[in-house]
Amino acid sequence: MKSLFRRLRAAKSAPTLSSDQCDALARSLPFLARLAPDRRTRLHALVARFLDEKTITPLQGLALDPQQHLQLAGLACLPLLEFGAEGLHGWRQVLVYPGAFRVRRRHHDEDTGVVAEWTEDLTGEAWDQGPLVLSWDDIQAELAEPEAGFQLVVHEMAHKIDILDGAMDGTPPLPAAWQRQWARDFQAAYDAFCARVDAGEDTAIDAYAAEAPEEFFAVASEYHFSAPALLAREMPAVAGHLQRFYGESPIPGG
Fold it and tell me: Which domains occur in the chain, in start order?
């Protein structure tokens, strides 16, 4: 009986995509054809697991069909091709708005006692232990120009991977030696980039990367999957780490 339960659990833990679903995914994300066959196989396994484990909830009247669910899952799983399914841990839901959404913020300064409240319009958000929140219009706009340097789903998934070690700081879980090298190289690139932004320079990389180390990692991740050649020209050390971490990008442009 125990053996039967183990087999049942193993079967449940390994969902698969049908051939029709694989074909639909390829149609919705044509650049996946550039992935090596073994990486496409890994992506299919990750997408099947994503669809099995995550609840995709459209909001404000948005309706998403099964092919659109596949497309979203495919984008979310691209950053996990080398890292693996561990990147899906700790959350269960994807909330999808039709377009940009408004959130209310509140901050209490413990030193002064001052409470500040404000609203922000966002296209995406990744809660530490909560859902992935996305704007469908922005996802589609970026897919229309896949080499333009923007990839919202990858950005938010980078945050989900980043937090797995307990701190959202721009350094994902890595072996100790690589983590030290990553932290050194990313910090140097981040400091240099912030200095350029603070000086008012026009930068080839989106200036939002200067907001914080975690945003620098997430924005750089977008460029890896949308304009890797540009990232390699602008930040070769960062590009090298991301090439190792994510594997070869299926987008050659930039």
Answer: 2-246 (1.10.472.150)
